[in-house]
Design brief:
disordered C terminus, ten-stranded mixed sheet, TIM Barrel, alpha/beta, 351 residues, two-stranded parallel sheet
Length: 351
C-alpha cells in the first residue's frame, strides 16, 4: 500500500486494512467492519458503510478507489434467461447471464473483458483482449445476478474470458463468494470452465481447489482442436490428459467435459469415438452443448439427426451425457455469444 497509485479498496487484504486504520489513528476493529461491508454485505460505495463514522468513511474515500461493476443494460429472453451488461469504472463492459431452471438458477459470469484466445466459434474471441477483471468486479456480477433470482443455486465461469488467464483474481473471487465472512456459498455449486492449460490445471490442483472443473474440449483430436482453439497449438491433448489425471488423483472429483457440437466439423461418429477414448482416462460427465451460430464464424449448428447419433454412440458406452439446449439465443445470451456488441468495440477503437 505504498506509492502514489490509488488502490481499489477491494484489492486490499484485511491485515493491510487493519494497518491502514492503525496508521491513521483509528481502531483496528474498523477494518473488520469495513471488510464486512465489502465482502459480506456487498456494499457498493464508501458512503454505504454506515457503521463506520463519517470521518472513517472520508478517510477511506481519500485513500482508495472503489471500482464496482454495475448493471448497465438488462435484457430478458422469451425463455426467462436474463442477460446483463455490466458497466465498469473505465467505461468497458462485460456480460453475465442468469439462467433460471425450475427452482434453481445458474449465474454465468465473466472473468475478463474480451479474451485473447480467439477461439473461432466464439463471439467473445472476436473482440480480442482488453483487460482482466478484478476480484471485486467478478463478485459484483454474482451479487447483481443473485438479486435477479433469489434462488441462485449455481455459478459457472463460462462468460467472457479464459478464467485460467486471470487465475489469481478468479481464485480470490471464489474465496470471497464461499467464505463465511463473504457470501457463504458452497464451492460445490461453483464451476470453473477452461480450455485447459496443463500447467494451470496442475496449479489449481496444488492449490486444493474445492470448486468443480469443466474442460471445454470441443474436439478430442489435436489437429481438429487447433483449428477451433488456436491456443491449443501450445500443448497437446496428451499433456492435458496427464494434467487431468494429476487433478483427479489428488481431488477425486469427477470432471465435466464440455463439447460444443459444430455441424459437419466435430459431430461425426468418428469424432464421438475420439471423445470416448479421451474420456476413458478419468471419470467424467459430458455436456453436449448445442451451438448457437455466431455471425462470421462459418460454423453451423449440428443437424438433429447427427446430434442424436453422436449422443447415442456415447450413451451406448455407458457414458454420462447431458444435452444442453440453447438458452437465451434471442438476446445473444447463449453459450459463445457474449460480446457486448456495441460498447467494447467502440471503446477499443477510441483508446
Ligand atoms: S471460448 Fe472461451 S477461451 Fe475461447 S475465445 Fe471464447 S471466451 Fe475465450
Amino acid at each position: 500500500m505504498s506509492g502514489k497509485e490509488i488502490l481499489d479498496i477491494r484489492s486490499v487484504t484485511r491485515e493491510e486494512l487493519e494497518n491502514f486504520f492503525l496508521q491513521h489513528g483509528e481502531k483496528k476493529f474498523r477494518a473488520g467492519q469495513a471488510y464486512d461491508w465489502l465482502w459480506k454485505k456487498s456494499c457498493q460505495s464508501f458512503n454505504a458503510m454506515t457503521t463506520l463514522s463519517k470521518e472513517a468513511r472520508q478517510l477511506l474515500a481519500s485513500q482508495f478507489s472503489f471500482n464496482t461493476a454495475s448493471v448497465a443494460i438488462k435484457q430478458q429472453s422469451s425463455d426467462g434467461t436474463i442477460k446483463v451488461a455490466f458497466g465498469l469504472h473505465d467505461g468497458f463492459q462485460v456480460e453475465g447471464v442468469m439462467i433460471p431452471s425450475g427452482d434453481r438458477a445458474t449465474a454465468c459470469i465473466s472473468s475478463q473483458v474480451g479474451c485473447s484466445l480467439g477461439c473461432n466459434f466464439c463471439a467473445t474471441g472476436k473482440l480480442g483482449f482488453t483487460r482482466n477483471l478484478t476480484t471485486g468486479e467478478i463478485v459484483d456480477q454474482v451479487v447483481h445476478l443473485s438479486n435477479l433470482a433469489p434462488h441462485l443455486s449455481n455459478i459457472v465461469f463460462m462468460g467472457m474470458g479464459e478464467p485460467f488467464l486471470n487465475y489469481e483474481a478468479v481464485k480470490m473471487a471464489i474465496e470471497k463468494i464461499t467464505a463465511t465472512d463473504g457470501l457463504a456459498m458452497s464451492p460445490q455449486r461453483i464451476t470453473v470452465s477452461s480450455i485447459g492449460i496443463p500447467k494451470m490445471i496442475r496449479k489449481m490442483t496444488d492449490d486444493g481447489a474445492k470448486f468443480h472443473f469443466a474442460l471445454s474440449l470441443h474436439a478430442a483430436n489435436d489437429k481438429k482442436r487447433e483449428k477451433i482453439i488456436p491456443f491449443h497449438r501450445n500443448y497437446s491433448l496428451t499433456e492435458i490428459i496427464d494434467a487431468l489425471k494429476y487433478y483427479y488423483a489428488h481431488s477425486h472429483k469427477r470432471l465435466t467435459i464440455e463439447y460444443i457440437l459444430l455441424g459437419k466439423f466435430n459431430d461425426t461418429i468418428a469424432d464421438a469415438k475420439e471423445l470416448a477414448v479421451f474420456c476413458k482416462n478419468f471419470p467424467v460427465k459430458i455436456n453436449i452443448i448445442e451451438y448457437n451460430p455466431v455471425k462470421e464464424t462459418g460454423f453451423i449448428k449440428s443437424d438433429p439427426e447427427d446430434e442424436k447419433a453422436f449422443v447415442n454412440f456415447l450413451e451406448k458406452r455407458n457414458m454420462v451425457v447431458n444435452v444442453r439446449k440453447s438458452r437465451g439465443q434471442d438476446i445473444d445470451a447463449a453459450c459463445g455469444q457474449l460480446a457486448c456488441h456495441s460498447r467494447n468495440k467502440q471503446l477499443i477503437n477510441i483508446l
